[in-house]
């Protein structure tokens, strides 16, 4: 029997694998700068030449970007499922917002379920912090819708991170800008139609947070679904109201 020689793995390949895992796990985020080479080499317990070789391999694959005198960065486009031109196209189409809510209904329910099963104490802390930022936005009368939209999206992103499912995480992360715009577009009409909407959203987010932290997976899934169902219900009511007003105006002109 002929036996081939076992190829010894290069140290730089081990470093590449470690950095890839950090990107997949969401530890290194799109656009984030890596620590300085000396610091990163010390953390990994490797030489700087081996680290540089790993960085060059990742840069060649488009996962890292090296800037002259400015360090190494995770590529901005990592996980960007929706480009800015597509966002602009989607923003003006009501059916696109409806479709996104349908998509979120399934996706975020699963995120909440797995987060309740798998979240660590660190995840719980990040969730509480994201929740507190969102609650602060709700508490400010006349606050910025853009800030509220970003805080809402970050809270749901924190749930995806706590799910410890890398596919769910990067899908939600790729939708982040679209989620922000979806919330901003929705909340104005919702608040105008139902003054109690803000209070209801605050309660729903609190129930969702508590279910995840207490490990009640089925309750977390249910609260996530009920939250999206509520938004869909109010938006459908808003659309019906707009249609009634449009018909009334046409009759008046006729």
From TrEMBL:
SUPFAM superfamilies: GntR ligand-binding domain-like, Winged helix' DNA-binding domain. InterPro entries: GntR_C, TF_FadR/GntR_C, Tscrpt_reg_HTH_GntR, WH-like_DNA-bd_sf, WH_DNA-bd_sf. It holds the Pfam family FCD. Residues 9-77 form the HTH gntR-type domain. Keywords: DNA-binding, Pyruvate, Repressor, Transcription, Transcription regulation. This is Pyruvate dehydrogenase complex repressor. Transcriptional repressor for the pyruvate dehydrogenase complex genes aceEF and lpd. One of its GO terms (molecular function) is DNA binding. The keyword Metal-binding does not apply. It comes from Halopseudomonas bauzanensis. Signal peptide: none annotated.
């Amino acid at each position: 029997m002929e036996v081939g020689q076992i190829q010894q793995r290069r140290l730089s390949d081990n470093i590449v694998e470690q950095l890839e895992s950090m990107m997949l796990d969401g530890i290194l985020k799109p656009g984030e700068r890596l620590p300085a080479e000396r610091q990163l080499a010390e953390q990994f317990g490797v030489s700087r030449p081996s680290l540089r070789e790993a960085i060059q391999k990742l840069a060649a694959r488009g996962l890292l970007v090296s800037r002259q005198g400015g360090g190494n960065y995770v590529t901005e486009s990592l996980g960007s499922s929706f480009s800015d031109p597509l966002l602009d196209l989607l923003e003006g189409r009501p059916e696109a917002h409806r479709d996104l809510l349908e998509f979120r209904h399934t996706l975020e329910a699963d995120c909440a379920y797995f987060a309740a099963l798998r979240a660590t104490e660190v995840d719980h802390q990040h969730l509480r912090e994201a929740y507190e930022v969102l609650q602060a936005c709700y508490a400010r009368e006349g606050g910025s819708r853009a800030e509220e939209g970003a805080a809402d999206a970050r809270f749901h992103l924190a749930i995806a991170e706590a799910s410890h499912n890398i596919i769910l995480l990067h899908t939600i992360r790729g939708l982040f800008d679209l989620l922000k715009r979806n919330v901003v577009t929705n909340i104005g009409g919702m608040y105008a139609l139902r003054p109690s909407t803000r209070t209801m959203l605050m309660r729903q987010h609190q129930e969702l947070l508590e279910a995840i932290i207490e490990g009640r997976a089925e309750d977390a899934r249910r609260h996530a679904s009920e939250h999206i169902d509520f938004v869909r219900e109010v938006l459908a009511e808003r659309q019906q109201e707009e249609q009634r007003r449009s018909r009334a105006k046409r009759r008046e002109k006729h």
